[in-house]
Amino acid sequence: MSNKVVSALALIVIGAVLFGLYRAGEFGEITPHDVSLPQTGVNVEMPFAGTPAEQWQEGEKGIVVPDANPAYEQVRQALIASRMDPAILNEHRPDRYLAMLAPEVREHVTKELSSWITRLKQGTKLLPNGIRVSGKMTLGEKDGYPTVTADYVFAYAFEPPNPKKLLNQMEIVAAIREQVTYMITPEGLWPSDSTGFQYSIACTAAKEGFLAPQFVEPPKPDQGLPGDEKKYFSTDGQMPTENTCD
């Protein structure tokens, strides 16, 4: 495996300050969409209410393997370790995730770590049961090894300092879509292809390699892209390519 390299290591990051997306190097925003809210502000008791993630499963329950093939479970554990483990989210410790990878690829992944894991911006906090997940896995083959392609959207609900001052439920919900293929090797998982985006986020934090919700940064109402926000929470279509957040 020493002659192999990880392709597309730099995960395309897309997100938003105000109902928008961020893509590394190119930015813009998406226009707001109506979400039913309490008159006094956002709903922190039911943070995903009225959002596309409202009916998704909570946390690890959202990553359902198609069958008993052990390759699926290996990738499932990698997704949990990289996107939901409190050690990665809050303490920014990637040890568990890196230990699942083949030794030869760990250093390469570490150099682009923010593309592979979710680290919450310091000072932010998720609400209880504040992660919802939806997506799918498919089995394949590459270079003589079995592969698993995982295409998932992870939605994170953040605790706002003053819920009554917010106007839209999406101000506290940030989402990451990741489409990644892992080769299953005797030495460990070998990520071979990856692409993705972030939606409804704080752009400055994203450029620094952290996830944060819209409410931590001032909105930029002069920017916007029309469109249905549901497509950014779906794995049915192609990966979005809008250049936003600038």
UniProtKB/TrEMBL annotation:
<protein>
    <submittedName>
        <fullName>Uncharacterized protein</fullName>
    </submittedName>
</protein>
<feature type="region of interest" description="Disordered">
    <location>
        <begin position="216"/>
        <end position="246"/>
    </location>
</feature>
<feature type="compositionally biased region" description="Polar residues">
    <location>
        <begin position="235"/>
        <end position="246"/>
    </location>
</feature>
